[in-house]
Amino acid sequence: MRDEGVAGGSGEGGRTFRLHNAVVPARPQEPALYLVATPIGNLSDITLRALETLAGADVLACEDTRVTRVLLDRYGIVNRPYAYHEYNADEVGPRLIAALEAGKSVALVSDAGTPLVSDPGYRLALLAIEAGHRVVPIPGASAPLAALVGAGLPNDAFFFAGFLPSKDKARRDRLAELAGVPATLLFFESPHRIAATLVSAADVLGDSRPACVCRELTKTFEEFRRGTLGELAAHYAQAGAVKGEIVLVIGPPGEAAAPEAEDVDRLLAQLVKDMPAGKAATEAARQTGLPRRDLYQRLLDLKDGDAR
Fold first, then answer.
1. DSSP output for 166-211
2. pLDDT tens string 199-225
3. Up-side HSE of residue 233: CA atoms within 13 Å toward CB?
4. Which of 34, 148, 206, 241 is deepest in the core (most CB within 10 A)?
């Protein structure tokens, strides 16, 4: 972003957006940082409030100007977008805060969905809050919520965990930490890792746990593939490479009775004979549904007791 770009965007004469054949005037936005949700695929999934904010903001920041330009052109918005992403955040962030200090309105969008969800926008929001500026969410499309309501799994409680680690051991450790969470789990996943992730999830969480792979949400080839983790792992092992953005939804653990402390200690003692303590805790978490962290600490306590 060049310094002169921060001074303003669309200008008074360009504060409009288009709906079908109608040109709609957009009111100038009050000074604040606006976090604007944009469509995750289908460009019709934009709200009227989002369109007015994008057209009326003094400064418009986005992850990729080419992606955002497609949306702006669709709705006849002439506001010029400026790039703000993880690689230039240290440089551009302070300029956007300076625009707020100058009494201007700043709108932030991600490439798709709701800003701050697994993107660097939270850094800008934090800077704005610390500087005493208003932060205004403009709600709309969200991939995790779209996946949750379409997966057909319990949604009274859910836990969004972002991306799992790419390396197998770290991924399994993270899944073991989440194994006992009494809620439906949601993860972002890339198409080239989904097969390996399902194998890890089936091994750690149990192959009978229900799940759904939600792919290309709101787009032409939208797909909800439902089944157990074991069934889904077997399918994607045979399916080969898939395309598109993915949200993996995994149902909550079953209502199994909590194991007795003596049984847990006996299991840990048996496992640690054949594997390192960390791996033993991971396997115990898979079998009992208890938090890996607590099981690992219990192992340390048992070892400490034996040493006395």
1. SSHHHHHHHHHHHTT-SSEEEEEE-TTTHHHHHHHHHHHH-TTSEE
2. 999 999 999 999 999 999 999 999 999
3. 19
4. 34
